[in-house]
Amino acid sequence: MKKANTLLLSISLFISVTFLFSSCEKEKDPTPTKTKMEGVWVVSEAYDSAGVSILPKMQNSLLPLTAFYLSSDNTVLSTAGPMVTYLVYGDSKFTQIASNINQWFNYANLTFNGGEFFVADGTPDRFALEMKLEGIGGGVTNTLAEILSLFGIQAQWLKTVVYHKFMDVGVSFNDAGDKMSWSFDNSTYAAYNMKDNNGNYVLWYGWPISKFSKCRFVLSKKTQSLNDITHEAYQNPPTKLEVVKN
Hints:
6 helices; 31% helix; globular; alpha+beta
């Protein structure tokens, strides 16, 4: 009887240790943040620092979606020109040029804005996002020089392409992993660059990096390709979006 009890105790201890070890292993090896971020995402909610929805500012019947494709090689393709413009130049400047936005960014022919994203190994809750803003969107002839001239930016800063990098952007997910939040907050900082003829970064001083907008974006994961959801959005544009407070 004593041997039987000892055997049962040993088995119980073995099961407990195995379960504990397995649990620890699972905790030590969760899905990396970068892996969770990869794929096609559509911005479904967007808020300014006061919690007021800014999605209607970035989306309308002519610009029907803000979408990202985040690739395993760190490449970003997106319809996020208006979103990046809002982030960089802020609400007041964005409002001034809102009537021209539709001319600058037209993704109906599947010509996207490019960029890259960078995430440390493991499960960090911060990442870096770099987005290019060009003056030509969807075959429109407006140059970035023409766009920036509306902001009163001096002529020497009117360049073809500017690389807008935001570092320490907050990133989080819901339990299902099909909702992702990006927070451009007080821990986030920016760097804006051009590139020389050898592709090396050169700081761009055309707009103060301290003036970027503090915002939060909620992105929903999609199973379709970026091309498909963009085509579908232009075929079936949304109705007027309601301004709400989060």
